[in-house]
Every structure is written in structure tokens, then in C-alpha cells.
Amino acid sequence: FFKNPAFVATMVVIFVGYFFSYTLNAGVNAIGLDVFGLDSAQVSNLLVWSILLAAVLGFVCGPVVKKIGRSAAIIMALLTMGLGLIAVAFAIPHGSIAALAVAPCLYYYGTSFFYSPIVDTATLTVTPEESGRVLGANDLIQAITGSVGVAIFGQMMSAGVMSGGSIAGTEAGAASTYANVFLIGGVIVLSALVIFILTKKMIYSRSRKD
User: Fold this and answer.
1) Residue 104: which of 70, 80, 128, 78 has the closest Cα?
2) Which residue stretches of the chain are H helix?
3) H or E stretch at 102
4) First vs last C-alpha separation in the chain
5) pTM here?
6) Per-10-residue mean pLDDT for the chain, 210 residues long?
């Protein structure tokens, strides 16, 4: 596997793209508690609409991906995921509904269209006999990167780093910490987009045909 550059590049995109995946819910709950004074139940009532959107889109994304192609779907997914995290940061000054209910929809919209085409792309970089191991590697990387991400960003949020202010327009304090963490998360996801764009020609040129 590690001698296969197309497979390695795809796994790097997955690792970077999902780096903030476990942090979103924890971050949104922290924003609700520390910035807006909401408890977990109230935050869940706001966030559930984003999750329901992702669930619904998960059932209909197949035909869309088939129509626009894997590459375009991955680009669209990573773009909306990155912009969704940035949107959370800029929505904080505009209230809990904007930050906790509306903005996360962008991120979850992207995740709905990311999993299927990126996994399909990964399996095409190996022989059919190795497809099962690719699926296992994909699931393992998703779990590892999400765990590493939440450990790093969780420490940043609990330590109150970057609390002096933010380009998102938040006041100094907890709001700025969360805004800056989400901005960093958005930039990381967008860097996965850049990596994919730079490597996609190589990935698909070395992939087997359906």
C-alpha cells in the first residue's frame, strides 16, 4: 500500500479532511455553554437539524455523485466542509441559532458528499482483491484522525488559547478562542482540498477503470 502513491495521496486527503470531524460536536457544545449559556439539551435541539440534513442527503447523494463525478463531488464536499467550519466562527457574533443551527449545516452537507466518492477513489487505486483492506484502512484513518484532532483542539479550547480577539469579530475571551479554533479547523479541511486538487490527476491516472 505505501508503495502506491495514488493510494497514499488518497489516504492523506482522508486524514486531513476528517481531522476536525470529532471536534465539531464538542466545539459546538462548548460554544453553546460558554458563549451563549445553553445546556447540552438546548445545544442538541439546535444542532440536530444539521445532522438530520446530513442524514437525508446521505440517501440522495448517490445519484448526484454519479452525475457530477467523484472528483467534483470530493472538491464540493471538502469546500463546503471547510467553509462550514469558518462559517461557525463568523456566525458566533450573530447568535446561537446562526452559530449552532445554521452554520453547521454547511459542514454536514459536505460530509454527506465526501465519504462515498473518496472511498470509491481509494478502492480504485488498488486491485479488486485489496478493496476490503482499503475499506478497513479508511475506517481506521477516520477514527485516528478524528481522535487526534479532538485531543488537540479540545486542549486548545479548554486552555483558552487565542482568546485576545478574532477576525471573525468576536469579543475577547471564550468566543474568540472558539472562533479561532474553528477558523484553524476550516483552513485544515481546505488544505485537504488543495492536496486533492494537486494530486487528483496522479490519483486517477493510476487508478483502475470501473
Assistant:
1) 80
2) 5-17, 23-34, 40-68, 70-91, 96, 103-112, 115-124, 131-159, 174-205
3) none
4) 20
5) 0.92
6) 86 96 94 95 91 81 86 95 97 96 92 90 87 87 94 95 95 96 98 97 80
